[in-house]
Amino acid sequence: MVAKQESRAAAAGLLAVFLASSIGIGALGYRSYLSRKRAAELEIRGDLAAIAALKAEQIVQWRKERLADARGTFGNPLMLPAIRPVLRGSPAPAALLEWLETLRRVSGYSNVALFDSSGVVRFSLVKEMDQSLTQELARQAMSTRGVILTDLHSAPGQESIHMQLAVPLFERGAAARPIGVFMAWLDPQDLLYPILHSWPKPSRTAETLLIRREGNEVVHLSELRFRKDSALKLRLPIENLALPPGQRIAADAIDYRGVPVLTVIRPIPDTPWHLVAKIDSAEVFAEVGSQSRPVALIVGLLVAFMGAATGMLWRHLRVGFLRRQLRTEQALRLSEERYRTLFQCLGEGVGIVNKRGRFLVANPAAESIFGIPSGELAGRNAWSFVVPRDLPLARRQTEAFLRGRESACEIAIRRADGAEKTIQITGTPRLNPEGRLAEVVGVFRDVTEARQLEERVRLLAQALQSSDDCICITDVQDRFLYVNGAFLRTYGYQENELIGQHVGIVRSERNAPEALSAILPGTMEGGWHGELWNRTKSGREFPISLTTSSVRDDAGNAVALIGVARDISERKQAEAERTRLEEQLRQAQKLESVGRLAGGVAHDFNNLLTVINGYGDLLLARLRADDPVRPSLEQIRKAGERAANLTQQLLAFSRKQVVRPRLLDLNAQAQEAGQMLRRLLQEDIELVLRLDPTVGSVMADPGQLHQVLINLAVNAKDAMPTGGELLVETSSVELNAGCETELPEAVPGKYVLLTVTDTGTGMDAETREHIFEPFFTTKETGKGTGLGLATVYGIVRQNGGWIAVRSEPGKGTTFRIYLPRAEAGPAKPDAAPPPMELHGSETILVVEDQADVRRLATRVLEAHGYTTLQAGSGAEALQLVRDHAGPIHLLLTDVVMPGMNGRELAGELTPRRPEMKVLLMSGYSESVVARRGVLDPGFTLLAKPFTSDELASAVRRVLGAPAHPCQA
Predict the structure, then answer these.
(1) What count of Cα atoms within 13 Å lies in the side-chain half-sphere of residue 719?
(2) What is the arithmetic mean of pLDDT over 739-746?
(3) What is the pLDDT of residues 804-823, one digit of tens each?
(4) pLDDT at position 590, please?
(5) Cα 152 vs. chain centroid, distance in angstroms?
(6) Fewer CB near the last or first residue (10 Å), C or N of the chain?
(7) Mind listing the pLDDT tens digit for each residue in 754-789?
(8) What is the secondary structure of 477-533 as a DSSP string?
(9) pLDDT tens across 285-314, in order?
(10) Full-model pTM
(11) Residue among 815, 441, 794, 357 at smallest CA distance from 594
(12) Cβ-count burial of 664 within 10 angstroms (0-12 exposed, 13-18 middle, 19+ buried)?
């Protein structure tokens, strides 16, 4: 029994030991399984956290680079002049298009566009876009005055997903208002989604998701590995995703497929996004499960073989330790490989340089920038590539790194192939534990094309700004869109004072409306060129030469107008000076044209006056003094005399009248004219004669001198309505070359000066410029002919003299008349002619094509006892002379006749009738009657209209005069 009990006790002990060992071994095996599972889970969660952190940092960096690119590119003040015209409606120039296309290609944009300050698109590389969303985004960017990068979205009705980058554009100055917005479309397929879809090690189920919370739902923003076409379409419910910034969640979950997964959720700073890194739980624990089956077998064996169980357990534990160590090493290698892959695949050049400036490592992009074959940049001195002119800048960068500061600059390098490039360098120093520089991590970007484009745009803007011509661009409604610096300097405006204003702000009111209305049609038809008057901000008016052209779109429609103006004030002043020097010639041309008119009408008009006045004299001679008809006839006779005087005044003003100059004492002429002037002037005007007794003589027509003084006195009288003083002075002067500024065109020599000064109202400069022009008058309509001063000018110039005027408003007027001094002795007064007998018995041939004038002359001559022969033309007169056998004592012929004029007739007849004398009669004919205003020798002229007594006196004078050699 005792043995049996001991046997049972031993069996129980053995059973207890077996059970205890089995339980211990089973517990140890299960613990080992849990340990492996926990280790695997921790490792995977660590990997997921590292991957989520890396990708979140990449996404943040990607967003910062996009925003920095936008600020750096469009914060450049040199870009604004190139973009501003496009914002105002002008088409984009080729250089800007090239630059925008380069920017789109280099930055990975799917489209770029420009919006004006009203949110209206002015330029887009891609024509189709959602106008409402883009305009609202443009207005939001201008309102916030900051760069905006939108969330991922797709336009209504479109499948493509994109982000938009909006950059407000400002004039210079912090307080400047936005003038437009630059907008770019980023395709997430290019850069963002590749960051999410890459995984550092092989995995069947690992995946990175980008999500966004909308209410109680989560929207998947990226394409899913196991469900295509899901971005922005897949929505799943979620209870809470509000995480504090910078924290993450690691948890077990069920993904969109309904599969258990291990996840790490990390928020993306400055965005509404969360990054989810996940992997299937089955994949994570598959290896642990496969490794647990041998453990169960080992447990069974250990139960059977207790001795071997301890060894097997130890070996298992040892293998587990070694396996974990191996996995740790593998994780380190994988992490290093991930960063190496990222380093090698970056699009921007990245290199690490030691404190001596030599490359330790560089990625392929950096080697491509420096033109070095792959793998050969390490060991090269970074500053050896810098061109000599930028070495000082490189030294300053090195000094900044030594002080532990980040630094960025643009520097020119010489590539290995000799090409010069401009690169943008951003360097971050890394310090050793002692705080000294260990190495520098540099990021390199080739900005050569961008800077070349900027330079072309800058040169274009500088060319416009440096032009001396005033250049402006307007819309088709003539509102300013652009003005260059010369325009602003010339007109005195600031740019913001002109942009948007109508061009009328600089137009002078001196421009004729029809001239202004012709500019736009001319511009549209191919260009307009002409001269206008413009006005500065201060009100100064000046002349310009303006050339315009139009800018048209692809459809041929005008979208803008270009104007190039030049201030021609100096040229106009030069022209005015030349005009002033040529004034005598132009004045002569004016007067000559009027003289032609006067000569054209004088003949017929004076023929009519001859008949009217002649028959009037005959009738008056027959009427008694108390005849009731006589007063009416006398009024007709006076009207005829006034008409005759008007004709003579026209001839005098045009310097085409025949003058008979002779030696005159100017003082005597002034005193003689003074008697008439006192009767002409009103009582409250005092006439003062201040005559130099030593003044010389002049060669002039006395009647013309009287006419000059009378016209000047009448002009002075009108200028002194309330009375004053009229001073007439004479003196002798000598003009030397260049000494008399008021008469630069006068010929140097000795002159007699006649000065007429009044104390009247005076004249302004504009009036002084026109007073000698025919028919110019400042008097009211009907109170002046405008011929008075023009007649004075014509008489003075016809007598070889010069006239100048000085006058200011309220200070009176002075006329200074310079007449050449005659070298002969003092003039002697004409002796009184002896009484003349007006009757005779000679034979007179009367030739006149006007029958009424011919009959009048014949009647008057026959009344004075003469025998007359009549002819109506030169041919008829020649025939009559051939047929007449008796003597012909006098040829009285009209000058202007059809066929043969009177002078030609006299030339034909005087050789045949040497004893015949000639008396010409004419209303006026410059080319026939006189040369240079003086009658040819051998001829006497009887001017029409003439009276009966004037005709009889002229006939008697010619018949009583000795024969001239020219008529012999």
Answers:
(1) 25
(2) 62
(3) 888 888 888 999 988 888 87
(4) 61
(5) 44
(6) N
(7) 999 998 888 888 777 777 776 667 665 545 555 677
(8) T-BEEEE-HHHHHHHT--HHHHTTSBGGGGB-TTS-HHHHHTHHHHHHTT-EEEEEE
(9) 776 666 656 665 665 666 566 545 554 554
(10) 0.35
(11) 794
(12) buried
Whether residue 827 contacts residue 665, with contact meaning beta carbons closer than 8 Å, is answered with yes
In angstroms, how far is CA 365 from the centroid of its own chain? Answer: 46
And the tokens for 539? 């009100």
Buried b / exposed e over 343-369, threshold 16 CB at 10 Å, is beeeeebbbbbebeebbeebbbbbbbb
Residue 720 in tokens: 């002194």
Q: Is the dihedral of CA 48, 52, 53, 55 positive or negative?
A: positive
Q: For residues 801 and 747, give the distance between their C-alpha atoms in angstroms, rounded to a whole number.
A: 9
Tokens of 41: 């889970």
Three-state SS string across 829-887, please?
CCCCCCCCCCCCCCEEEEECCCHHHHHHHHHHHHHCCCEEEEECCHHHHHHHHHHCCCC
How big is the chain, counted in residues?
968
Contact 444, 348 (CB under 8 A): yes
- Which pLDDT value is given to residue 51? 82
Q: At what angle do helices 2-74 and 281-304 cross, to 10 degrees?
A: 160
Helix (H) or strand (E) run with residue 105 in it: helix 94-107
> Which pLDDT belongs to residue 263?
86
Residue 298 and residue 277 in contact, taking contact as beta carbons nearer than 8 Å: no
Counting beta carbons within 10 angstroms of the beta carbon of residue 237, is it exposed (0 to 12), middle (13 to 18) or buried (19 or more)?
A: exposed
More confident residue, 945 or 962: 945
Residue 231 corresponds to which tokens in the numbers above? Answer: 């971005």
Where is pLDDT greater, at 72 or 741? Answer: 72
- Per the CB < 8 A criterion, the answer to whether 142 and 170 are in contact is no
Token pair in block for residue 864: 């004075």
- Mean pLDDT, to the nearest integer, of 575-590? 65
Distance CA 688, CA 726 (A): 6
